[in-house]
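Lab notes, practical 5.
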Amino acid sequence: MSGFLRFLSRISIRLLGFNILVVFLPVAGFLFLDTYEKQMLKAQEDSMVQQGRLLAASLSERDGFGPEVAEEILFHLKKRTDARLRVISKEGILLADSSRVGEEITVAEADRPDDEAAGDEIGAAETTDEDDWLYLIATWPFRLYRRFFQPPLPAVEDSQFYAADKPIMGPEVQAALMGRYKAVWRISAGGQRSVTLYSALPVWKNGKVIGAVLVSQSTYKILSNLYEVRLDIFKISLGSIFVAVILSFILSATIARPVKKLRNEAEAILDRRGRLTRLFTHTKRMDEIGDLTRSLEELTKRLVKHMSFIESFASDLSHEFKNPLASIRSAIDIALEVDNKKEREHFLRMALRDVGRMERLLVGAREISRIDTGLEAEECRELDVGILLSHIVEGFRLRTNKVVFDLSIPEHPVTLSASPERLQQVFENILDNAVSFSPSGGTISLELERNDSQATVIISDQGPGIPEENIHRIFNRYFSFRPGVGKKADHTGLGLSLAKAIIEGYGGRIDVKNSDGRGVSFYMILPAGQ
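Output from the prediction step:
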């Protein structure tokens, strides 16, 4: 469930829903209207043709062809058709009209508005949805586009084409009397904002054309329907815009404001000198802004830790230099005052010894700095830890016979990616420490293990162990606790600190524990290879 909620809280999912709602639906509706209109006009023409064919077939089957026969057929078809049907003789004389069935027909009836056949519903409608102010606002961009960018349409004839004193011989009627089908568009009469489709079909009998059937119907109903659809789509668009405004406020509250707050917090955590004064505030957000905040929080933690390391490192190094510098100064001052040659040489040797200690301190400090800043840049390669430990132990066996080295490695190779020189430096520092604390004849054991994706090296000695009050300080820089073991001046207290820095630089960890009986054990855990 939490994974699903996290998915829904993604900014990309919110933006996707926003775009689909605001852009896709209204645009798709407007784009579909042209196709919708063409389909309706095509369906209207097909219906008119079918009605005309039905009338023409009925006239062909009758014995005679005159006004009486035509009116009789139209009377039976009147309630079954929604278009105006007219029967025209070969001379262009109007024989029958579905809108005036039962009345005397003259040529003057030919110019009568076709929409009257549909009843008072259309004739009385002086206003349409097109007069609605909301509709005018909605269609204004389209009317503006058509006015300036759409190419001019061909002129359309007026429905008053058939004059009262002339036969009905329009181009479509002439084509029908010649045995062909033809359709013509004309502007509707009566000031209506529509056009009328005229379709003419021939009436055949004994292989000859004896007349024509003229079918006419206005597109008023189609346009009225389109007006309503456009208006509904515009209402949907207005609703979508309203929802878009609400979503914008939501997005502003969930994205823009938190980002602004994060920016202000980033500016506030630094003082005038560019020092970090505090960390980023922890957040429980599950989206990308929450991930960014947690990353910045972790980044500032690491920066604070690194700055603390630099400050403490400089302070520790300065503190460690004070004693040898004071000793050198005192030895040189005394050497300049004494006249005895042997005493002068003694104090000069003391000064040289402290100079050597300072050199070792500087070398160790430089090494720690290199590890801290450039360990990732050093070349790493896959190496077998067991073989590396074997070479190191072999070197120690040749170097000293004070202790016995017991090495235990698994049969299968244990590999990891690291610099062999750096790992050798770690193991040698730990072994040097173990040899210096081990009694003569003691045993130093080295054990290599692999647990899942980790390689563990354990180095144990049989020395006196580490006092509990000092065990947490053993990896601190310049800390050295060696009661009765060698000369403290020969040790800088940086060996274990270097080992810890290298191990942690490779993504591992190092720990130390006192053994149950005697001695101490160092545990070095590193990520193993495949």
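Observations recorded by the TA: Residues 335 and 343 are 7 Å apart (CA to CA). The chain has twelve helices and 13 strands.
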